[in-house]
């Protein structure tokens, strides 16, 4: 037999699915639900927590509980890297037409809000080991956030590192005001004579930090997918490394492996 809070959650869930409450609509207040169900405050609150954990609703402090708008899904497959490499040598006009986020979401350039910030840092022991450089080596740290203009939260949290000495011959690569760069990192590296040979991605999942959950707008209990991506050039050097944090409620990873025939 369903518990009292489960019955309240079930009733609200069915009303949401039936369209009685649509995306962005405010649900009845806790006091209204207490009155209409005849149940206690803690019981009503537990029912709301169930729906929140399912990603159906979100609570806005001091305002109320709202039906959560379904967010644009992201399909990130491993063919994107070859697509990016081909695109790096396309004309500027073609490169301006679309980017990796558009590739993964099906959105258009004008649908997106993009932000980038650069700063110069020194390699930590961990980053230096991963990139094959000494601790203290000057790096360009680049932070990216891209979101759909109709949504509040970014698709991912990205921090990218370039070895400053490898890219300094093109001052444009040190200037964040040149972002979004048509053709992305592969085109940027091509301007200084670097060709990417392979991309290596280490994938893990974990609970988000409080800061990540807030910035990505994650429902309680939602995990994040974490990529550590390294790009190697044709001389087998790591020329770019990035940390990518992806929200688990909207991101699908697709890996297709072509096998040699017997």
Task: Describe what you observe in this structure.
The chain has 262 residues and is α+β, with helices and mostly antiparallel strands. It has helices spanning 4-17, 30-37, 41-53, 80-88, 92-97, 100-105, 125-131, 164-167, 184-190, 210-216; strands spanning 57-60, 64-67, 74-77, 112-122, 138-148, 157-163, 196-206, 224-233, 238-247, 251-254. It has two domains: 4-67, Arc Repressor Mutant, subunit A; 74-254, 3-Layer(aba) Sandwich (Chorismate lyase). It is built from ten helices and ten strands. Strands 4-5-6-9-8-7 form a six-stranded antiparallel sheet. Strands 1-2 form a two-stranded antiparallel sheet. A two-stranded parallel sheet has the order 3-10. A hairpin with a 4-residue loop joins strand 8 (224-233) and strand 9. The longest helix has 14 residues, at 4-17. It is elongated and about 70 Å long. It starts with a helix and ends in an 8-residue tail after the last strand.
Give the C-level CATH assignment of the largest domain. Answer: Alpha Beta
Residue share in helix: 25-40%
Q: Whole-number radius of gyration?
A: 23 Å
The first-to-last residue Cα distance is 57 Å
- Helix and strand content put the structural class at alpha+beta
Shape, per Cα inertia axes: elongated
């Amino acid at each position: 037999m369903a518990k009292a809070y489960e019955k309240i959650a079930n009733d609200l869930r069915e009303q949401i699915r039936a369209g009685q409450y649509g995306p962005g609509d405010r649900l009845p207040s806790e006091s209204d639900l207490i009155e209409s169900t005849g149940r206690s405050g803690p019981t009503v609150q537990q029912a709301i927590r169930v729906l929140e954990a399912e990603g159906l609703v979100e609570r806005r402090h001091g305002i109320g509980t709202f039906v959560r708008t379904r967010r644009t899904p992201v399909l990130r497959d491993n063919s994107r890297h070859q697509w990016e490499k081909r695109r790096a040598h396309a004309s500027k006009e073609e490169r301006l037409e679309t980017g990796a986020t558009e590739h993964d979401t099906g959105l258009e350039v004008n649908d997106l809000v993009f932000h980038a910030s650069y700063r110069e840092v020194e390699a930590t022991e961990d980053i230096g080991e991963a990139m094959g450089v000494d601790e203290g080596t000057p790096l360009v740290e680049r932070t990216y956030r891209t979101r759909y203009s109709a949504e509040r939260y970014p698709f991912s949290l990205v921090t990218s590192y370039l070895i400053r000495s490898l890219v300094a011959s093109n001052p444009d690569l040190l200037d964040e005001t040149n972002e979004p760069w048509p053709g992305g990192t592969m085109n940027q590296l091509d301007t200084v004579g670097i060709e990417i040979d392979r991309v290596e991605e280490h994938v893990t999942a974990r609970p988000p930090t409080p800061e990540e959950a807030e910035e990505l707008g994650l429902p309680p209990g939602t995990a994040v997918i974490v990529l550590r991506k390294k790009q190697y050039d044709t001389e087998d050097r790591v020329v770019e490394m990035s940390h990518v944090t992806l929200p688990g409620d909207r991101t699908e990873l697709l890996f297709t492996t072509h096998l040699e025939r017997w």
